[in-house]
Amino acid sequence: MHSNDSARPGLKRKAIHEAVEFAWIFAFLAFFFCALVTYSTLLLREFHVKYLSYAFALINALIIAKVILIGELAHFGKKYEARPVLLSAIYKAVLFSLLVFGFHFVEEGIKGLLHGVSIARTFHEIRIDDLLGRSIVIFCVFIPLFAFREFRRVLGEDQFYNLLVRSRET
Q1: Is the pLDDT of residue 13 over 80?
Q2: How far, in Å, CA of 31 to CA of 25, rounded?
């Protein structure tokens, strides 16, 4: 019984750490996705704000943040962590973009099945140009995200935090 009690603080600390990681990734993605919704609205000269578009952007940010954490749990990208930080970040951006791309196909397949549509028809109806465009945007957003995460991994969380948010007095 004593060993179970001592494992709880470690489990609780890990759960809190994962929740904080999730929140940071979500905030980063939500910022960019909401900016894209605003850009699309302005570009298409839609002056009435579609709040539902923002809700979808936030939901996508939540889902993709979870996909990233699952990928990290599966050690995606660990192979290139010994390389320079920029190369490691770009490699992870490519790899995780492909992972999100794959999850999108799975999501579309499940949606089709729930609506009584065959898998073949569902995949046939996917607009590949739209999917590729979104994948390029995801990749571009992932480069700075993984660059920050790689710098944090190399520097350590405390030093990275101090470098970003604390003033440096000489």
Answers
A1: yes
A2: 10
Q: Is the pLDDT of residue 48 over 80?
A: no
| Structural tokens at position 91 | 């490699």
CB burial of residue 25 (10 Å; 0-12, 13-18, 19+): buried
Q: Torsion over CA of 147, 152, 154 and 155, rounded to 10 degrees?
A: 130
* Domain range summary for the chain, segments of one domain joined by +: 1-74, 75-170
CA distances in angstroms from 111 to 54, 67, 116, 119, 122, listed in the order given: 21, 18, 9, 9, 8
Q: Measuring CA to CA, which residue among 123, 67, 134, 61 is closest to residue 95?
A: 67
User: Which tokens hold the place of 83?
Assistant: 């390389």
CB 151 within 8 A of CB 162: no
| Residue spans of beta strands (DSSP E) within the chain | none
Looking at residue 47, its pLDDT comes to 59
pLDDT attached to residue 7:
57
Q: Based on C-alpha coordinates, what's the Rg of the chain?
A: 19
